[in-house]
Design goal:
Layout: H1 3-17, E1 20-22, E2 34-36, H2 38-57, E3 62-64, H3 74-79, H4 81-84, E4 86-91, E5 98-100, H5 101-127, H6 133-139, H7 141-162, H8 166-175, E6 192-195, E7 198-201, E8 211-214, H9 219-223, H10 226-232, E9 239-248, E10 263-273, H11 278-294, E11 303-307, E12 317-325, E13 328-339, H12 341-350, E14 356-358, E15 363-365, E16 368-375, H13 376-387, E17 388-392, E18 398-402, E19 413-417, H14 424-435, E20 441-443, H15 449-459, E21 463-467, H16 469-474, E22 476-481, E23 487-491, H17 495-503, H18 505-509
Parallel strand pairs: 3-9, 19-20, 19-21
Antiparallel strand pairs: 1-2, 4-5, 4-6, 7-8, 9-10, 10-16, 11-12, 12-13, 13-16, 14-15, 17-18, 21-22, 22-23
Length: 513
């Protein structure tokens, strides 16, 4: 399937089967806002659980909090968001559409990377097993020419962003002859900065004194609680604080389904370390986080690291884990070495010490911080992107299947009586009662068994259990595997252990150690 069509198919599939609906749809919707349906909320909660357990349950030195969305407004002055949380925006005069200038340039670079990949694919097809990819990338003239172009764009873009040289950013867009995707024209306005924070008023009287912000990230709630957690939990450095929560950004260019929204959910962990050790811990968490993603089995080729061209004001190292979404490779998770910027800024603005006393060295210091931050909605989209498949079967029929990792699937199993009589529905309900405390289950008795299998394939249910007349005689059922469609006969008493082996959290988490 062409990647450009996949996003449209995913959006349609999500609505048809109850994963995601346009928000306020009966009022013609609200741009870039979505509601998670009955299956979507199950998958979303499972993704949260996978992240939370891997952070807090598998790491004895990481604990969790849940901080408030509303924070004292000085928080955002201290963090730099009031003065520096901006996006460089540019308008096309013909289409009247607005774009992020840096994203236009990133998309241009991605197209160049795709050109290189096409050269690689052609050479691989031509030379077969004798193909040496590394040598080809290092010597092919076409590849080298494109790589040089990418490097030149990155250098100019980095310089313009670091210098806040908005005219240079626009000039680069003009020099590369980047066109508006809607109008196809190069009739661009100047680049302007736009602050992304939502403001509101606290209390009954509006005014400057009562202005507060919806948090644009969850990290600051962790930083202001650093000492509360450290002292109450008797935590010793290195240790981490994890949080899952909503964040809000006034994205002017919110688009691409749930990839970029104004209201979204983050899963962040701030890891506090001794100054001077931050870069080794940065590498440690890069390795841990890519391992976590790969453990889902969505395909190693779908991930890559991307070092930041422009470092944030607080960072001395930063990279993204990018995923191959339908729109190309885009940021999925950020990993940053934030130095001691945040804690020192809060010390300065609050007038209170945020230092750790190290009993092993008898000294106090402000810790450095390594941040891992993954967008839950983007993670949701990455799972659907990799899981969604349209298959032609041996008999010529077709099926749409979501090959969601079993532990994450909204329903782990469906129990299907072969017919709606002869005591089979009652037997099926008894099986559900036996399993429902440990596994999410669905009962379905409508239509032929083949149609019911197709429905379960489409919503990603890993196993379908069929109850037939033989089940009444010898307490066995047929269990069907979603991915292979292989069916096997199994004793009903053996189902709990079988499903635990394939669907449980321990089955998914055991590889992380």
């Amino acid at each position: 399937m062409e990647q450009k069509d996949l996003l449209k198919d995913l959006i349609a599939h999500c609505k048809e089967y109850g994963f995601i609906f346009p928000s306020s749809e009966i009022y013609d919707g609200l741009a870039a806002t979505y509601d998670y349906g009955q299956l979507g909320v199950e998958l979303k909660n499972n993704l949260k659980t996978y992240w939370w357990k891997s952070m807090t349950q598998l790491n004895s030195n990481i604990v969790g909090i849940d901080s408030a969305i509303f924070m004292h407004p000085t928080t955002w002055k201290a963090s730099g968001h009031v003065d520096a949380f901006n996006d460089p925006l540019i308008d096309n005069k013909d289409s009247k559409k607005r774009y992020r200038a840096d994203v236009l340039l990133e998309e241009y670079q991605e197209k160049q990377h795709q050109k290189i990949q096409k050269e690689v694919d052609k050479a691989e097809k031509r030379f077969g097993d004798a193909f040496d990819k590394a040598q080809f990338l290092a010597t092919n003239p076409n590849v080298l020419r494109v790589q040089e172009k990418i490097q030149e764009v990155q250098t100019r873009m980095k310089q313009a962003l670091n210098d806040n040289a908005l005219e240079d950013l626009r000039q680069l867009i003009l020099d590369l002859e980047i066109v508006c995707p809607i109008s196809g024209s190069k009739n661009w306005t100047e680049v302007r900065q736009f602050n992304l924070m939502f403001s509101t008023s606290l209390g009954s009287v509006a005014g400057e004194a009562s202005t507060i912000y919806l948090r644009p990230e969850t990290a600051q709630g962790i930083f202001v609680n650093f000492l509360n957690v450290q002292k109450s939990g008797r935590m010793k450095i290195p240790f981490g604080i994890a949080q899952i929560g909503k964040a809000f950004r006034n994205e002017i260019v919110a688009r691409q389904f749930i990839f970029r929204m104004r209201e979204f959910e983050q899963m962040e962990m701030q890891f506090f370390v001794k100054p001077g050790e931050e870069l080794s811990w940065y590498e440690h968490w890069k390795s841990k986080r890519i391992t976590w993603h790969l453990n889902l089995g969505l395909g190693e080729s779908n991930y890559r690291f991307h070092d930041h061209i422009k470092l944030a004001h607080y960072a001395n190292a930063a990279c993204d884990i990018e995923f191959h979404f339908p729109m190309g490779f885009k940021e999925l998770e950020g990993i940053h070495s934030r130095t001691d910027f945040d804690l020192k800024q809060h010390e300065l603005h609050a007038g209170k010490k945020l230092q750790y006393f190290d009993p092993s060295t008898n000294e106090s210091y402000v810790p450095y911080v390594i941040e891992t931050s993954v967008g839950l909605d983007r993670l949701f989209l990455s799972v659907l992107t990799a899981a969604y498949q349209e298959e032609t079967l041996e008999d010529g029929s077709e099926r749409t299947v979501l090959k969601i990792p079993a532990a994450l699937a909204p329903y782990k199993l469906a129990v299907l009586p072969l017919v709606k009589k002869d005591g089979l529905p009652e037997k099926a309900q008894a099986i559900i009662e036996m399993l429902r405390l440990d596994f999410t289950t669905q009962y379905d008795e409508k239509d032929s068994i083949g149609k019911r299998y197709r429905r379960q394939d489409a919503i990603g249910t890993p196993f379908a259990i069929t109850v037939d007349h033989e089940s009444l005689e010898n307490n066995t059922v047929t269990i069907r595997n979603r991915d292979t469609m292989v069916q096997e006969r199994m004793a009903i008493d053996a189902l709990p252990n079988y499903l635990h082996t394939h669907c449980s959290w321990s089955a998914l988490l055991s590889n992380l150690g």
